[in-house]
Design a protein that fits this description.
The protein has two domains: 98 residues, Rieske [2Fe-2S] iron-sulphur domain (Rieske Iron-sulfur Protein, 3-layer Sandwich), CATH 2.102.10; 230 residues, Naphthalene 1,2-dioxygenase Alpha Subunit, Chain A, domain 1 (Alpha-Beta Complex). It contains nine helices and 19 strands. The strands form four sheets. The protein has an eight-stranded mixed β-sheet with strand order 13-14-15-16-17-18-12-19. A four-stranded antiparallel β-sheet has the order 2-3-4-9, covered by helices on one side. It has a four-stranded antiparallel β-sheet with strand order 5-6-7-8, with no helix packed on it. The longest helix has 18 residues. It is globular.
């Protein structure tokens, strides 16, 4: 259980808040690159800030404040030029660093200096794995992590997305909750089939044991279920939460990006080997619906079952009202890690998982280490030992 004050500290993501300062130490995926390529200018809300993403004619991506500093016209209605974006109101022209390149009327003869004193908020953008990532924190920026799923060659990428009306933290905490699989997914699916008079489409299995192990970039969640051997990878290795909020599987990531305190952008990212003659730079994009056109909650698929639980807790889970049990050790571990990371940032230190060493930033598949751990994979082994094979 958290106090209301602690809950507020951990869930806030806006500028100037301790939680917001933490999230600004990590690169945040905010859009699929091909959507910005097609539209050229796209409104973005990220970590409580209203922004505009664009791709200049030069090919450079930018992410700048939504409001033009001249007369507050919306930059989302502007257009791109060779080196940046122009406001549609009076043509003020800004590059990806936020510098004003031109103020057409005030600089008729090209000798004006007023533009040199005008800047807008701008954030660095990188493209990786078909996604656009922004860094909104202080310089120098850390490295954008090159997890293998995002950089592997010969793959087709499938990116699903949805916007959920809830805080990022209740989604991240779901990753630290192994037992929900037994009930939210297995037993609920069986119950729904029973109501329709259909045979069970899945077989339920009980959790025999759960465990959690911190590692350099987050926490491993482990489960041992009925029928699984004791050396099952789900228990000996587990599923990592890459701090603060990404669930990583072998060729699948779930990325939970805070839009603001009560809204989260959820990316479901998967790669599959490209077939013969299939383009390997292809990105298949699809919106994942939460409800039907009749506004009924979809409960037949795993992701929507999760969505219903996350959103059903309310915009921000009232953690001062909860009663935690034995299976919630991972939740407690995650909250302890989150509070320490916030404190580290407030003290001027890098939080967990920030990468600044180029040699450290090499591709990694986080699950199913086969044939033991290589020296590189040992970086991702749980801290303090534990059964990893």
């Amino acid at each position: 259980m958290l106090t209301e004050i602690e809950n507020e500290l951990m869930t806030q993501v806006g500028p100037g808040t301790p939680g917001g300062d933490l999230h600004r130490r990590y690169w945040q995926p905010f859009a699929v690159a091909q959507t910005v390529d097609a539209a050229q200018v796209v409104p973005v809300r990220l970590l409580g800030e209203d922004l505009v993403a664009y791709r200049a004619k030069s090919g450079e991506y930018g992410l700048v404040q939504q409001r033009c500093p001249h007369r507050s016209a919306p930059m989302k209605d502007g257009w791109v030029d060779e080196d940046g974006i122009r406001c549609q109101y009076h043509g003020w022209y800004f590059n990806a660093e936020g510098r004003c390149l031109a103020q057409p009327y005030d600089d008729l003869n090209g000798s004006g200096t007023f533009k040199d004193r005008v800047e807008i908020t701008a954030y660095p953008v990188q493209k990786l794995g078909g996604l656009l990532w922004a860094y909104m924190g202080p310089q120098p920026a850390p490295l954008l992590p090159r997890w293998e799923t995002f950089v592997e060659d010969g793959s087709v990428r499938e990116i699903g997305w949805t916007i959920l009306s809830c805080n990022w933290m209740q989604i991240a905490e779901n990753t630290m909750d192994p037992v929900h699989v037994e009930w939210t997914h297995m037993n609920q699916t069986i119950e729904l089939a029973k109501r329709r008079g259909e045979p069970p489409p899945v077989e339920t299995r009980r959790h025999l044991k759960v465990d959690f192990a911190p590692f350099k970039y987050g926490v491993y969640k482990r489960r041992l279920m009925e029928g699984d051997p004791i050396d099952s990878p789900d228990f000996t290795v587990g599923h990592p939460l890459i701090f603060p909020s990404t669930l990583a599987l072998k060729h699948e990531f779930q990325l939970r990006v805070p839009i603001d305190d009560v809204t989260t952008l959820h990316f479901w990212y998967r790669t599959t080997p490209a077939g013969s003659g299939e383009a390997t730079d292809r990105v298949d994009l699809k919106e994942i619906p939460f409800k039907t056109n009749e506004n009924s909650t979809l409960l037949e698929k795993i992701l929507q079952q999760d969505f219903a639980v996350w959103v059903g807790q309310g915009p921000i889970t009232p953690r001062h009202l909860e009663v935690l049990g034995k299976s919630d050790r991972g939740i407690v571990m995650f909250r302890t890690m989150l509070r320490k990371a916030i404190d580290d940032v407030q003290a001027g230190r890098d939080p967990i998982g920030v990468i600044r060493d180029v040699e450290e930033n090499t591709p990694w598949i986080p699950l199913h280490f086969e044939g033991g751990l290589s020296p590189h994979q040992k970086r991702f082994a749980p801290i303090g030992g534990g059964a990893v094979s």
